[in-house]
Amino acid sequence: MGILKSILILSSVSAAIGGLLYLLGLAFWPVFGLAVLFQIFVYNLFMIWVKQQSAVQFEELQNERIKEYNSMGLDSVCPDENCGHKAFVPIKLDEENVYECPGCKKMVKVFIGAKSFLTTTPLEEDPFKNFNFAEGKEYDN
Ligand SMILES: [Zn+2]
Q1: Ligand 1 center to residue 89 CA distance, Å?
Q2: Domains identified in the chain, total number
Q3: Chain segment 32-69, per-residue pLDDT in tens
Q4: What is the whole-number distance in angstroms between the Cα of residue 71 and the centre of ligand 1?
C-alpha cells in the first residue's frame, strides 16, 4: 500500500472521528490529533504482532529443517536367511532404527556404524566384511 493512500486513510478516519465527536461538542483538532496517534499506535502494535508471527513461523520452519537433516535412509537387507528382502529404511541418527521387514513382517533393527581409515590405506574389499556393528568392533575369527 502506498504511503499516500495510508495517509489518506489515516486522515479520513481521524477526520471522521473528529467530526463525530465535534457533533458531541468536543473540539475537532485535538480529537483529530489523538485519533491519528491512536491509529499509529494500533498500527505499530499490529506490525509487532505480525513480526512475532513470522518469527514463530520461521522457527517452525527451522525445526522442520533440522528434523530433515537428522533423517536419511539406506537400503537394508533383511537378516533373516529365508527372506533377504531389501527395503529402503529411513534412518535417524539420534534414535534406534527399527522397521518391519516388508517381506517377512519381522522387526529388524539397523545399527549405524562408522569406521575410519587412513586415506593411504588401499581398500580392495568391503571394509565392513568382518565388522560387527552391534559391538562396534571386528568379529574375532
Ligand atoms: Zn524379512
Answers
A1: 13
A2: 2
A3: 999 999 999 999 999 999 999 999 999 999 888 887 76
A4: 23
